[in-house]
Amino acid sequence: MNAELVTVGSELLRFGKRDGNSEWLARQLQRVGVEVTARTAVDDDLERIASVVSAAFRRADVVLITGGLGPTDDDRTREALGRALHLPLVLDESRVEQLRRLYEQYGRPLGAAETKQAQRPRGSSWIDNPLGSAAGVLVEHEGRILVALPGVPAEMRAMFSATVLPLLERAGLQPLRALTLKIAGHTESSLDRRLRDLYAISGLDVTVLGGVEGLELYVRARSVRGRNDEAEKALAEFERQTRERLGADVLGTGEEGLAAVVGALLRERGQTLATAESCTAGLLGAALTDVPESSKWYRGGVIVYADELKPLLAGVRAETLADHGAVSEAVARELAEGVRRRCGADMALALTGIAGPGGGTAEKPVGLVHVALQDDLSSLHRRLRFIGDRDTVRRRAVTAAMDLVRRRLLERG
User: Fold this and answer.
1) Exposure b/e, 307-324, CB count within 10 A at least 16 = b
2) Which of 93, 126, 314, 368 is 20 to 30 Å from 346 by CA-CA measure?
3) Dihedral, CA atoms, 179, 185, 189, 193, nearest 10 degrees?
4) What is the dihedral of CA 12, 16, 18, 23, to 10 degrees?
């Protein structure tokens, strides 16, 4: 079974917004054996949306559309569905009443614009939205499935998981046997050199995906039907040999992020963490606290962007700043020491660097970042250089800092 993904929204084409919905959906579909054969982004033009949807529905077994189901004038997906499928839109009075009650809860009237969310192509079904007002639309015709979901990521994901995924599973698909391994400390070429011979294991396809947090190895069985046990054994052997060769460079499996891995290790070992940030200005603390229940292991931190705040909030000595400059190993170490003491944490991370685009020198170029980690046994330091724009440098610095504490926790056992 194959699928095409259609993302509706002028912002994706005119303002460079990232299409995270299609990326997420492609992963989910792969896991249930649906091959994504095309992804299309289309602006908020009624005729162009209808044309794209019509062509996709002729080619694919499954068409998944996100965006354009809301109440505003530029939300035109439902009208485009009617044109693409040659079906008139009908107003569902029971859905109007549901919308009226929902809007009353928020103290807002239900106007004509909002009421259009109760329209759907004749013969289609609703997909409930537990997080918003725009319900999804489901069309099943001659063995093909068309699904339209809101573009808000949280709403789309909840609706897909609750309704669309079970629908695909009932269609008789056999889930792919697949494995995702997250890898740190490697480039794609260095990883290829270490694992190239493993890629030849019979029955496995290996895809290397790059990202700010490192690399992902997505491994799946080519032939699943009738060979589930063999596929599972091949995946297990691949994982065993990969972990044996790479050791602590393997972050984990599945979709769990680096911050969650760090949090789990801190909880297991009964340790707490604090942070001091200069160049990243709170990005590290934000990444850590994105993890649910992070308050059980993250004590807090300080943002000391201005040099005069480094002594005041983190205890960096004035002579250290004067002798070495803010972007230095000495300052990074004192930042970690000071924030650990002031926050009463078992461990502390500190970052100071030059994110750019200006401010670099021959001695301290743009992209230079000092990361320090202190615990009750030792003080560690890494001098790193990242290539990329300001955002990339800062995000990679956050990743490097979290990976440093992960490796330290693994060393301590």
Assistant:
1) eeebbebbbbeeebbeee
2) 368
3) -80
4) 70
3-class secondary-structure state, position 187: coil
Whole-prediction pTM value? 0.73
Measured between alpha carbons, how far is 102 from 134 in angstroms, rounded to an integer?
11
Bridge partners of residue 383, in order along the sequence: 370
Is 50 exceeded by the pLDDT of residue 224?
no
- Both 276 and 338 in one domain: the answer is yes
Q: Which CATH number do you get for residue 222?
A: 3.30.70.2860
Q: Residues 282, 390: one domain?
A: yes
Structure confidence by residue, pLDDT tens digits, 20-52: 999 999 988 877 778 899 999 999 999 999 999
Secondary structure (3-state) at 162 = helix
One-letter identity of residue 145: I
- Beta bridge pairs of residue 385: 368
Q: Is the peptide bond before 357 cis (omega within 30 degrees of 0)?
A: yes
Q: Are residues 316 and 224 in the same domain?
A: no
Cα–Cα distances (Å) from 363 to 325, 335, 368, in that order, read 12, 21, 10
Residues 104 and 162 in one domain: yes
Angstrom distance (rounded) from CA 65 to CA 3? 11
Is residue 204 domain-shared with residue 327, that is, in the same domain?
no
Of 270, 263, 267, 268, the C-alpha closest to 284 is 263
**CATH number of 77's domain:** 3.40.980.10
The pLDDT value given to residue 142: 79
Number of domains in the chain: 3
What residues contact 284, with CB distance under 8 A and at least 6 apart? Answer: 275, 277, 301, 349, 351, 398, 401, 402
Cβ neighbours of residue 152 closer than 8 Å, sequence gap 6 or more? 131, 132
Using CA atoms, how far apart are residues 35 and 28, in angstroms rounded to an integer?
10
Find out whether 388 and 359 touch, Cβ atoms under 8 Å. Answer: no
> What does the alpha-carbon distance between residue 177 and residue 232 come to, in Å, rounded to a whole number?
7
DSSP E strand boundaries for 108-248: 119-121, 125-127, 136-141, 144-149, 178-183, 204-211, 214-221
